[in-house]
Amino acid sequence: MFAGIAQAAIPPKPQVEYSADSVLETADAKMQGHVNYTPTRERREMVMGRGGEKIFMIMRQDKKVAWTLMPSDKMYIETNINQATPNSPPDASKYKMEQTVIGPDTINGVSTTKNKVVITRPKGEKMEGFMWLGKENIMVKIDATASDKNKKTRFMTELSNLKIGKQDAKLFEIPAGYEKLSMPGMPGQGGSGGALNMKNMLKMMK
């Protein structure tokens, strides 16, 4: 969530198309993946858990929908990305962000600018750490700790094999043969909550 706020709080978002391998690390788990990005479309592949289960998430800002694809079952879930739910991305404008430039650095062969960031939520919770931005405003890495009154949680996301270039439009479409799955509790599915939140995803990763 804080990583999303950090990215949203840095205008403008990348206007180039690119692909990269990705990694997400927390104290509980590590998740490998791949990302394909355009200014209006994004696809993320995630390998979940020790069994290597794959999940694809496609965000279509141009259509205002998000699809979660489960290849092993040939099914997908559709959500409305504009419909507010407890798991919707937070509004970055409501957060205080302090950003201090540290200087140039190289991450996985990519020239970046290292920044120290402190993000404060309305109720006082904080995220403090470092963020590395490429010249195209791509967030190549973030390594930070989120804290509230009860606990601290460290997380790190990083891109490697970053390649800037036009992405195949087919990557952002639902493959043929997939069946739409309706789930109670999913936004746009007749419920008010989100079934595939980060807590549930981390359980799958273990």
Structure notes:
The chain is mainly beta and 206 residues long. It has a single domain (2-205), classed as Lipoprotein localisation LolA/LolB/LppX (outer membrane lipoprotein receptor (LolB), chain A), CATH 2.50.20. 7% of the residues lie in helices and 49% in strands. The protein has 2 helices and 12 strands. A 12-stranded mixed β-sheet has the order 7-8-9-10-11-1-2-3-4-5-6-12.
Question: What sequence of helices (H) and strands (E) makes up the elements?
Answer: HEEEEEEEEEEEEH
Q: Outline the low-pLDDT stretches.
A: 84-88, 186-206
Number of helices: 2
Spatially, the strands of the biggest sheet line up as: 7-8-9-10-11-1-2-3-4-5-6-12
Q: Report the count of strand segments.
A: 12
Q: Strands, helices and their partners?
A:
Blueprint: H1 2-8, E1 18-26, E2 30-37, E3 41-48, E4 53-60, E5 65-70, E6 75-80, E7 96-107, E8 110-120, E9 126-134, E10 139-147, E11 152-164, E12 179-180, H2 198-205
Parallel strand pairs: 6-12
Antiparallel strand pairs: 1-2, 1-11, 2-3, 3-4, 4-5, 5-6, 7-8, 8-9, 9-10, 10-11
